[in-house]
Design a protein that fits this description.
Length: 291
Amino acid sequence: AVTDRAAFTGALVARVASGVNYQEHILRGAVARYIEWCADVAGFELNATELFSRKVIAYAVPKAFAGWSGAATGNMRSVMNAVGRAVDPAGWARVPTLAAAEPSAPYSDGELVQLRSWAAGQPTEMFRRGAAAMLSLCAGAGLTASELDQASSEHISFDSAGALVQVTGRRARLVPVLASWEGMLARILDDEDPYALLFRPGSEQGAYRNATSIFTARSAGTGLKPTAPRLRATWVVAHLNAGTPYPVLMEAAGVSDLGSLARFVRFVPRGTASDEREQLRHAECSDWKST
């Protein structure tokens, strides 16, 4: 019964909370989803030692968190591993971690031309504005889907150095917009209503799940349509290719882990052997040069 499952979950979280390195509200939500799938879908008994054994965690986590990214699923497996160790320290063995998720591939220059045509060809002003916001803020400033969904005209400013986006939320930051996207962004700003959402004008403030995928699915056109992760990847690779220093790019991307950006290095084009040798030879910092 649901009541029994909820009581079991609450008691389990209370039992292990002090022994795992996760905030209790995060632990409770993750464990509740996991146990719900195990009990209601897979039919496991409400037995903590069994549910959080190595074998069951390896089997159940990918199914309980189906549809999540590889990285997010790996995080959930880490949570269940921690709970398993707390439940049965002597009998529980560490589960191998999931492989890192493959990074989204950036769009090519030709594909970006197609996407600009897709945005301009939408049949209504609302869709044209939403498409332009998605391209200019995700490919032009590296916003994630949830950050895009919260952006309004008040968050955009222009000065002599170009356009700036004030990203709100838990990774608040200021991001300069790539110059090639400034014109598209400027055209969709609403001076009369600075609080109007750029991506979903007329909607209430706040993100909802799958907003970008629902928008693109409903948009006009049968050709290439964008995804927010690939647009953000395009922005990251543009900066890597331009030589933007990692600390600067990490701050603009809102990440603290260098690996979040380094995994995109595979998409950065290589130069000729002679060019690369020349770059490596002359990469000295002036502060390091001997006199």
